[in-house]
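Fold it.
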Amino acid sequence: MSQFLRNWKEFDIQDITRHLLILGDLSGDCANCRELGIDTWKALECPKCHTKFKFIASRRSADHPGERFQLARRMSEGRRDLMVVDYDDYHRTIGGQKARDFFKS
């Protein structure tokens, strides 16, 4: 019986941002250009900036921790072409990078 487990791998965070589709309740958005209303289950690329999606994440997992693995399973089964990324990890890393950039200036 296979189960979902979190694991860690080092990634270039800018590459994630350029190719991330963020799943919402009804539609998705592109992390690269912030385009809204993307069909998360069918879109291969952003209709605005034409970036090819390689990763998918959901903000909902942060609001509903008990559903985290069910969401991961649904995203993985619905979009086998995309790697599932934990949105909390992504958001925390982006926030830390923005803070470091702000204090460098």
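The chain has four helices and four strands.
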